[in-house]
Structure formats: C-alpha cells, structure tokens
Amino acid sequence: MGSEQRVRIEVLVFDGCPHAEAALRMAEGVAARLGPGITPARVDVDTPEKAAELGFPGSPSLRVNGADIEGKTASAGRLCCRTYEDGSGAPPEWLLEAAVLRALAPRGVLFLCVANSARSQLAEGIARSLAPAGVTVWSAGSQPTRVRPEAIAALDEIGIDISAHRSKSVSEIPAGQVDTVITLCGEEECPVFLGKARRLHWGLPDPAGVGGSDPARADAFRRTRDELRRRLAVVFGR
Predict the structure, then answer these.
(1) Parallel, antiparallel, or unpaired: how do β-strands 7-13 and 38-44 relate?
(2) What domains, with CATH codes, occur in the chain?
C-alpha cells in the first residue's frame, strides 16, 4: 500500500459525558483496523472558553485531522451533549471510518459481496461517480452471478449508468492495485480478499432478498443506493 499517511483522530469530550467512553473505544478500534499511522487521542473540553476556542458542538465530537466528521462547529462555548444525525448520542462507526478513509486518500477501492449482483455493483457505480481522478474502483464476489436489473434501474434514476457492468470473481481483480477493501455482506459470509489492503465492513441487507411486489423490491434497492451514496460521499468528500 506504499508509505502510510499520518492520521489523527481526536475525541472531544467533557467530564461526565455518558457517551465519551464508547466514542473513545470506537476511535481506538477504527485506528487499529485501518492503521498503522492512525493515532486516537482524547481531548478534554473543561471550560466554556475552551469549548468556544475549539468550535465544540457537543460531547462527544470526533475529528479527523482537525475536521469534524459531520462537518459541524459551534461558536458558542456551551458544554453540552451532542446528538448525531441519526438521533443517537454517539456517531455511527461507519461515519468515523469514512472520514478516516478520506484522510488516507485511497487509490484502489474494491467492494465485495457474494454474488456481485446488487450491493457491490451499486457501490462501484456510486464510487466511480464520486471518486477523484486517479482512483480506481472495482467490485467483485466469491460466487458471481449477474447484475440485477433493479440495481441498474436504481442508479439510472440518479444519472449513473452501470448497464455495461458484469458480475466478476475476486480472482479477476488485480490484487496489487487494491489498497482498500469494503465488504458489504449482511447475514451471509463475506468473500475473502487475500491481497494486502486495509479492510472495512459495512454490512447492509441484501435488497435482492426482498420479496413482494416490484415496487417494494425497487424501494429496497433505492434504500441501499441512498445509504451507500451517503457513506461514499463522506469518503470522497462530496
């Protein structure tokens, strides 16, 4: 993967915050998985003056290389608890992972699931539309089948064309060019990638497994599409 970049995760908290320890453990876990070169640190915010100086939007706040993972700051110096976009008192782990990955600036990203028919195909199409020049994106599976027409339709709705994509085996991917692997399997066992790469796991339900009417299936693919687009927009800073 070449020389490792230095990345600093700061966990800004005030004493007594009920989510401080969980946020610290999350930062340590992400640093261990995506390192080396990633350093987590606790920053105690103990006065209103320090809160104002740091642009502290509440505890716990996580920053990667000085940037808040939700892009928030606050001018007031209030020592308060923070509520994240999903309503919880601590950020989802994927958000921190995505912010760290953005700081690491990956050059070769591989999305994996079993059939390479739905989730990983959606992710490949979205990532290619967001990634800067010089970043290569692939998707593959351990038991490739065919690209689901619902995946093609879901991306076509947002102006991304994957009609020429095909399902691919992991063995077809140039392992030496991959520096980041994101597995997307939910309940099923994910494929194994034997190359040297940092690894993330974003377990998402398989939209191809949703039964019922055609509109219900289409909605399942849209939900997966939108969740992947939300996460990958953080990775690629869009």
Answers:
(1) parallel
(2) 7-103 (3.40.30.10), 106-235 (3.40.50.2300)
